[in-house]
Amino acid sequence: MSAARLELRSLAASRGPVTLFRDVSFALVPGELAAVRGPNGSGKTTLLRCAAGLTHPDAGEVARVGDLLFAGHLPGIKDDLTALENLAFALRMRGLVPGDAAILSALERAGLAARRHVPARRLSAGQRRRIGLARLALDPAALWILDEPLAALDAEGESMLGALLESHAGRGGIALVATHHPLPVAGVAVRDIALRP
Prior knowledge:
Elements: E1 5-15, E2 18-28, E3 33-37, H1 44-52, E4 59-65, E5 68-71, H2 83-93, H3 100-109, H4 125-138, E6 143-147, H5 155-170, E7 174-178, E8 190-194
Parallel strand pairs: 3-7, 3-8, 5-6, 6-7
Antiparallel strand pairs: 1-2, 1-4
């Protein structure tokens, strides 16, 4: 994994006449996890989209070093594709072809091996989220930006996400995560970034 870095300098963003946040500055270095917190409407998703280069801030700069994986607050999967097809497609979109055995192993770890041939429309919200967990397990990106990854996950899914985050940090990766809940990690410090309207 190449060295990663994410720095936001004096970032500001608004929605219409409403200022979401201003003067947000921080830098994350290899092995660091950060949780963006704030009430609904405070700009958590906008901040993550700015950090990922998907939205332009009103002011400030973003500097990124390292391959980026962005996962939005929606699962981002196709209803007509199976769990296996969704995972393979998401990886191919990133130029990754880990092979059938690795894909099946990741689905098994995510608790989806028995449902790998089921169309996504017939999976529960939590099972759809687990496709994303399998994707995290196979994507070598150094910089993860995750928007509400705990949504719809049960305790076992939360534990799996925590293990993935711990492993990612242990390899020198960076994760910036928008969440209303504590990140389920042990032994890894999590920096809190608070947004207030």
